[in-house]
Structure prediction request, 544 residues.
Amino acid sequence: MGHRSGVNNSQSLCVGHTVTDPFSNQFGKGRIPPAKRLVGDYKTKIVLALSAALFIGSFVYLSYRYQTFLLYGGDFGDYVHLFSTTVHGTGFLQQAKFRAGLSSYWGAHFAVTLLGLVPVFALFQTPYTLLAAQSLALATSVSVLWAAARSQLADDRVAGLVVVSYALNPYLWSAWGNGFYEQAVLPALVFGTYYAYRKRSFYAFLGGVALIALTNEFATLMLGGFLAGLALVAFRRNRLRSEGRLFVICFAIVVAVKFVSGVVISYFNDTPGIPMASLAAPLAPVIEGPRTTVTTLLGTVVSNPDLLMELFTLSLSGKVLGLFFVLIPVFFVAALDETTLGALAPFLIFGWLFAGKSGYYQFAGHYPLYVLPFLYVGLIRVFDRLSVTIPSRELFARMTILVLVISAGVGIVALQGPFGLGEIKAPGERNRLVDDAIDTVPRDATLVTQNDVYPLVSARPTARYVAAPAQFERYQEEHGVVRPDYILVDHHSKFWSQKLTEGFGDRLGTEYGRYRAEGEIVLWKRGYSGPVQPLSNTTATNAD
Prediction:
């Protein structure tokens, strides 16, 4: 990916070099590759091939994890269920877990972009639809990043290195391999939105800002910081007068979405706010009630310096190491950019001061999707500012190998596994027996099962799962005793099966009889008192 002759860094569409009124007709007059060249040259074809390979590989891998009980109801199964209930008209984005005071996913997160997938799921009502959507969204972000990087960097090899670093980033792979999340669209949206800003494409930029904000109410915090960084750069380079109205509209969108999200979440949730279980232990004595707000948290720590210091120093080594590892793939230099710092600050403030789960400050699970795209935008901007070049193919090859080594090392050390993807195991007898048990249950019958089995039945609107006995008990206190037609227990997973059996207690064996059982799989049926039948001889009554 060679250097473009005749083009130096001063000629690029650098944010500080061209004063353009974003409300004028000057959009797209910067040094942007023509559409034909952007799609047709061999370098872009390589990137598109890489995106396609990542899509296919990740879809196959996610499908394999789904079939081997490694995608859980707590995340993946919940999403399948909320789409299924919406399509079948049995609820609007209905939660699959039994949780008091909460009926819809919008009671937890204001994720409007999820609605865009409802028509697709209506056509293909299978969990694989979401796995394909997750894979496609993240694979697409690789190509969009290439377009954004190439539009700003004078050296195609440097743009290629940015893409390689992103495509091999272990935190991206870790988030990629955990099922489905609405945050999967954030990287492509952020890269595309920044690309639109570089092109001075007013409507595309505002549309991108709106879509990012509507993806998840938490994303508005990082987006607001990112926009503040862009505005600061515009101010320093005497462009704030020409771009001021653009930023005013953007911040208005962010504030409006944040306000609306609060109203909507309160409508669908009797007790909105951040649950105490998600907060650091030192906050428990000073926060009243089961939930609280960010405003309350900020006021509490600001008025209590001792508490602020205690929260900051709690697990400080883990927080520092988490930040250290997430910055390695972007060579640390991304943190020199104002937009990256602006986006990263809200995430770190919450993760370092308020979070009770290490995943926030160690960037585990799907949380990297909130920050990775802003890190790579920052990397592009810093490389442009420093006029970085890679003068030869040999050096590009060496740099690519270095990125691969760094990524593998971070994945193994920081994420405790090859790229943090988790366990891989072969399907076996357990799969067949669970499938037999599921096929025994009529599709319109109500069914309750455990967390790791639930994704296999999550497309059924009448299926739910028990994640925590205490949470299940609180739900029953509010809504009455839960009496499903069937209860499916898989004792292969002692951790999850125990939570399910504890939830129903001595009702298993009294109100519910053992209907079919084989090995570690037991299917209980309400009111059944006949002989226990084996699963292996079962004739499917209503296959999924």
Remarks:
- The longest strand covers residues 512-518.
- The beta strands are 274-275, 291-292, 447-450, 463-466, 486-490, 512-518, 521-526.
- Residues 2-37, 539-544 have pLDDT under 50 and may be disordered.
- Residues 442 and 542 are 5 Å apart (CA to CA).
